[in-house]
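Hey,
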Amino acid sequence: MRNLGNRKLKIKNEKLEMIVEKMTKSIFTLFTVYYAFFTLVDAGSVRATVNTVEVVKGNPVQLRIKATGGSATFPKILMVADAPVVGRSTNSSQNYTMMNGTFKSEKITTQVIQFVPEHDMTIPSYTVIISGTEYKTDPIGIKVVKSSAPTSQKNALFSLQMQANKTKVMVGESFMVIVYFSLKNGVRLSQEVQYTKPEFPGFTAVDVEEKNAYIKGNYQVQEVRYILTAQKEGKATITPAKAKIGLPDRSRRDIFGMTFGTKWSQTASNSLEIEVLPQAQESDLIGKFKVNTTIDTQEVKANKPVNLTVKIEGKGNLENFEFPKYEIDGVTVYSDEAKVDTNIVDGALHSIYSKTFVFISDTDFTIPARNFSMLTLEDKTLKALHVNSYAIKIKSSHNEAGIAKRDHTKGMVQTNMSQAVQTKEVIVEKEVEVKSVAWWMLIAAFALGALFMFAVKELPKFKSKKTNPYKEDGALKILYAHMSEGPEIEAMVRKLYAKKNGDKSVKIDKKELKELVERFL
């Protein structure tokens, strides 16, 4: 009986040691993941931007230098070219993200420098050191212009005036309308300004988000800009803009002598007469543009993406332009929303249009060429803009190449081919020496076990907050990596891409989606 008791004790001790060992390994793995999560840092980068590249003389420009990566050391900037620095601030933040199952941590530090240029200038390149590595910013050109705002009426508290950079345009041609709101320096408002924009009958109008503000003489000037495109020929009238400002009512005072209440004053701008002429020739665009296209690859594995970016830029308006869709048999195509940036350069309207297309296929295909017309304003001639055609070759998979090689090679052993590893369970019996388990091992095992169970319980919650695998976006990320493992997976990925691209006719079977996702969880 005593030997039997010792044998049972040996088995229990052995099992306990195995449990402690497993828990220790699990905790070590969790700590490794935790460490990787909080220490993995992206490669550094530096970027310099300004709030405007065209500034009214006497007004400040803000230069922002953004350093991303680790700890950043900025140069001491006392002058920007020949303009003295009049203000400076620095802020930083730490970002943690998880992308495609990889945890990333990055520190972002931004320095904002304010200066007042007196003439056209170029902001030089600056060197920022991030975690011991030097990074340089790109130079930026600044243009100093005179204010185009009309002179306000003498001693007026505020005023509204409207101007157009053109009063005679063709159908389809775009131009800029600017409303100038001028408020006398030192005027204290009790309420926000109530602004009513003009009406533009016969035109499509796009509000320019960038608001240009500056000081001119004794007034603070705020520009409100609109891009207008003529829709029909004839004479059109743009109605006045209106504004109301609330001033403290000095006739009303409380028992302490403080004013209360608001006295409203209002004003309106002038109207504008625009003559719209018939278009000289039918065209897709009016202006002077050039096209640039970039493609990341023309040879790719089956069901891997090919990215094509189309960029159009130049003089004119691209706000209403829509690049024609690509429809290719057997190829899944989706695209992002077009990005359009519009601004005024040397008094003329300039636009940059950018759109990216993604193509996915398991066989060779060709991205067709695209052509559209452009009517130039200088000589009224019709020109063609061309987007090249691209032949895309789909590379055979590694497995297919291996099978083909074996089919054409007889009586030879291919030593450079990976071999499948067969495993089998082997049970080895051995006699284990009886050892007593120290009390501290039991306490450590309990503590580690509790920590392990807590981590196992909480880690899925953390992960679920990041990406829900059963929602369409999360499922797309999971299934995309396994497209080649079955036709049903490929079909589901194509449906998810199509729906993400805005195809409302696509229906997703939630039960089927869940079953496919659970294969890889």
